[in-house]
Amino acid sequence: SQQGEEDPQALSIQEGENATMNCSYKTSINNLQWYRQNSGRGLVHLILIRSNEREKHSGRLRVTLDTSKKSSSLLITASRAADTASYFCATDVDMRFGAGTRLTVKP
Amino acid sequence: DTGVSQDPRHKITKRGQNVTFRCDPISEHNRLYWYRQTLGQGPEFLTYFQNEAQLEKSRLLSDRFSAERPKGSFSTLEIQRTEQGDSAMYLCASNPDGNTGELFFGEGSRLTVL
Predict the structure, then answer these.
(1) What is the average pLDDT score of chain A?
(2) How confident is the model at residue A1 (pLDDT cuts 50, 70, 90)?
(3) Which of residues 24-43 of B touch A (CB under 8 A)?
(4) Of A17, A70, B42, B62, which cross-links A13 as Cys (Cβ 3.0–4.6 Å)?
């Protein structure tokens, strides 16, 4: 089975609120990556965090990595309707994806 | 546009027919991956190449599926004797340096088997 598993499966928030989604994995990694997928499109890489990093920022995105718990979280601050998409994580171990988190941001 | 192109973008075929999808990765990328995705699910790994060598193939992949990457450039994914269960989006992705870098995805090829 794949390394990365996202949680929750679905998340619905109002525009302007923050969205947090989580990823758990099973074995030691060198890096973990987050991707976004708009409906019917390919995945787009958002951010990569290395095993020696604990936190990384990119615009409204904040990613944390806890290697002791084998987990990562993706925080989207001040969400917009355009953030509505599915979000996936993958690790360098196998580049596999879970079922993702489907985020809906209501205007 | 990530620079990875897939063709065709949409394919409708009758059960039992063969179909072939093509992926052109970013030119300097050594690794190329194929995934299959059905509605509401995440991308399911099918196979990947390092240059022209197919290094891993999912056990879920039946013998009706075959992939090639001649000369380590473009890749093709062929499905023989298609079944309705093959209906899905087929995604291709590449990266330049193995698993240390991010994947660049194409827009996918959507297959509908009638």
Answers:
(1) 94
(2) low
(3) 33, 35, 40-43
(4) A17
